[in-house]
Design goal:
With 441 residues, the protein is an alpha/beta fold. The protein is built from eight helices and 21 strands. Strand 16 and strand 17 form a beta hairpin. It binds zinc ion.
Length: 441
């Protein structure tokens, strides 16, 4: 309740506030944003497909999309520390396949010279968007628009200051209910593992109240609109983005990075007939809770006491690797059940990426890791003293990624090729890649 009332308050403040002035004559040096040697450029591309394209995420949903509820976008944030460039891209998309990622990397690298190892992709996992591969010409349009957006971001880069804060969201909940036999069933599990935080990276390029960009990272399936919906939509991440951008008078670009949301969803109670399709009210609740909290946290990061704490040393480090994880030998006996995972010679092909921008560390996992990966990897890396963003939904041909603890419970998230050994292998792979990255000159 505390979170909800705080959100309501911040929402009211946003709606009632007069347009803030960009700079006031009374500002002194104490209120100057401490710009650094790091440069950042931001741009976005519209990737809304033509109406009619089938939407992804539900095998039972038939027919094409009928309308556009809200647009799909890609946001590109390019970083440049003077030695190298890096980019983070968020996609309003269900997920990126390995081939999508590879083609995007090739096209972006060719035009912008940003090394492929320095590019991180993140899909929001909206269930009201298609796979890129659903339509070849749509896929090609997306790739060329994304390349253009990254180039525009490169051209726009300017010195920045980065601020970090955390807030709370109230709408996500664990969806692995446990029955009397100790088995996992689809439902709501208020006491199941969860992460109620939203992590905020505020990027300022001048002394104005409005940031250049605001990066929000939380974890929750973007399927408020379910299979009954046939409208194209970016789901709550897209509507939170427009909320934040409205609050900052259209002078800010907001980006959402999806965390390890494999077993988290919006807290919409199931009906006896199954999950209910979220309404406009449900969508607004989730999106504005996130957006209002992001605005509240980010305006607090702009006061002079917070400006004094900002880091001046924002060097870029990046690394990428592909883990070859042993698959469960039992599951391999029925390979047709493992539709989403690419398996070669008994190994799951599992690409991972790490990117550090000074004290900010981004870990990118493919597919749908459950929230315990987000919490566990953050713990594994705690001794580094960094602000860690553990992201799911990077490009890759993998499905749900359960942790060891879940295996005896079974359930939807454990149906893939992973087994009890997988969690330790993934966490060790991430730790190794991070130390390899920081050992680079
Ligand atoms: Zn999912």
């Amino acid at each position: 309740m505390k979170t909800l009332s705080r959100n309501c308050l911040s929402l009211l403040l946003v709606l009632m506030a007069p347009l803030p002035l960009r700079s006031q004559p009374s500002n002194g040096d104490w209120n100057k944003v401490p710009l650094t040697a790091l440069k950042v450029g931001v741009a976005e591309a519209d990737i809304t497909p033509a109406v009619g394209i089938p939407l992804a995420g539900y095998v039972g949903r038939t027919g094409g999309s009928t309308d556009i509820h809200d647009p799909l976008k890609v946001v590109a944030v390019v970083f440049d520390d003077g030695r190298s460039k890096a980019a983070i891209l968020s996609f309003d998309s269900i997920q990126l396949l390995q081939a999508d990622g590879d083609d995007l990397l090739r096209a972006i690298t060719k035009v912008t010279n940003i090394p492929a190892t320095h590019i991180v992709f993140n899909a929001s996992h909206t269930h009201a968007a298609p796979w890129l591969s659903t339509d070849a010409s749509y896929r090609q349009t997306v790739i060329s628009r994304v390349v253009q957006a990254v180039q525009v971001a490169v051209d726009r880069r300017k010195p920045v200051s980065l601020g970090y804060g955390e807030g709370a969201i109230d709408f996500n909940i664990n969806r692995r209910a446990i029955n009397a036999e100790g088995k996992s069933v689809i439902g709501l599990n208020p006491s199941g593992p969860n992460d109620k935080r939203v992590k905020i990276l505020r990027i300022d390029a001048d002394d104005s109240i409005e940031p250049l960009a605001l990066v929000k990272n939380a974890a929750c399936h973007a399927n408020v609109f379910r299979d009954a919906n046939k409208q194209i939509s970016a789901d709550f991440p897209g509507l939170a983005k427009s909320f934040v951008e409205r609050a900052f008078n259209g002078r800010t670009t907001a980006m959402y990075l999806q965390g390890c949301a494999g077993d988290l969803r919006a807290n919409l109670p199931p009906l006896s007939t199954g999950w209910r399709n979220g309404s406009e009210a449900d969508m607004t609740w989730a999106a504005w809770s996130l957006g209002a909290e992001a605005v509240q946290v980010s305006v607090a990061l702009r006061v002079s006491e917070q400006l004094q704490r900002r880091s001046r040393d924002l060097k870029i480090f990046a690394a990428a690797d592909t883990l070859h994880l042993a698959a469960d030998p039992e599951k391999l006996k029925n390979p047709s059940a493992l539709r989403r995972d690419r398996i070669e010679k008994g190994k799951i092909i599992f690409p991972i990426r790490t990117l550090a921008i000074g004290e900010f560390l981004f870990i990118s996992l493919p597919g749908e890791p459950v929230i315990e990966y987000g919490l566990g990897i953050e713990q594994d890396l705690a001794s580094l003293g960094k602000k860690v963003f553990v992201l799911g939904y990077g490009a890759g041909d993998v499905g749900y990624i359960p942790v060891k603890r879940m295996m005896p419970e079974g359930g939807y998230e454990t149906e893939g090729p992973y087994w009890a050994e997988s969690e330790a292998a993934i966490r060790a792979g991430v730790k190794n890649l991070v130390s390899k990255m920081f050992s680079q000159k």
